[in-house]
Amino acid sequence: MALDVRPDREEQKILKEKSEFTLIGHSGPVYSVAISVDDKFILSGSQDCSIRRWSTQTRSCLVVYQAHTFPVWDVKFSPLGYYFASASNDRTACIWNMKKHMPVRILVGHMCDVEVVEFHPNSHYVATGSSDRQVRLWSVETGECVRLFFTVSGSITSMRFLRGGSHLVCGNDKGQMVIFDVERGQPVDIV
């Protein structure tokens, strides 16, 4: 005998009302969102040069972070959730403590837009990718660039560390993926 466990129409309506909501606050397009590891917060980065932290429980904006002078292309929470990072058209990336309204580190060194940012799995480092075709690895503790990766053939548009953090996979606007050995700072494969 088969059981029908699908919700009826009234239950579907209630579920839809509880699961769908709109967060209004930015004055321009939102280019990036990130969700905290505990699902309590959402970050959004926008053309209006701001980052907003939203509560998923109250569905409201808790904080507006402003330090970038041009659009914010990317935002990411650290694996530990206490810090987050942002990448901007102003050629900088910032590391933020959720409890402070100003960045704890401003990462300067790229010659063009910083398109993407990604935390290393151990949370001690942040990688940035830029339109200047460079990938950099920064110390969260000091804000210093600790590794400049081999320059690739196009703007870096995406990146992700492998689970253990030994390799970084970067996508570019030429349709390629470059896999870097993090320790050596050299590409091991281009796909």
Question: Can you describe this structure?
Answer:
- It is a single chain.
- This protein is mainly beta and 191 residues long.
- It has a single domain (27-190), classed as YVTN repeat-like/Quinoprotein amine dehydrogenase (Methylamine Dehydrogenase, Chain H).
- 6% of the residues lie in helices and 47% in strands.
- The protein is globular.
- The model has no long low-confidence stretch (mean pLDDT 90).
Describe the secondary structure blueprint for this structure.
Elements: H1 9-19, E1 30-35, E2 41-46, E3 50-55, E4 60-66, E5 72-77, E6 83-88, E7 92-97, E8 105-108, E9 114-119, E10 125-130, E11 135-139, E12 145-148, E13 156-161, E14 167-172, E15 177-181, E16 186-190
Antiparallel strand pairs: 1-2, 2-3, 3-4, 5-6, 6-7, 7-8, 9-10, 10-11, 11-12, 13-14, 14-15, 15-16
Give the ordered list of helices and strands: HEEEEEEEEEEEEEEEE
CATH class: Mainly Beta
Q: What is the fold-level CATH name, i.e. the topology?
A: Methylamine Dehydrogenase, Chain H
The coarse overall form would be globular
Helicity range: under 10%
The count of β-strands is 16
The CATH architecture can be given as 7 Propeller
- Please name the fourth-level CATH homologous superfamily: YVTN repeat-like/Quinoprotein amine dehydrogenase
Tell me the number of helical segments per DSSP (H or I, 4 or more residues long). Answer: 1
Poorly predicted sequence stretches spanning 5 or more consecutive residues? none
Q: Average the pLDDT over all residues and give the rounded result.
A: 90
Rg calculated over all Cα atoms? 19 Å
Spatial strand sequence of the major β-sheet = 1-2-3-4
Specify the biggest β-sheet.
4 strands, antiparallel
DSSP strand (E) fraction?
Answer: over 45%
Q: How many domains in all?
A: 1
What is the structural class?
mainly beta
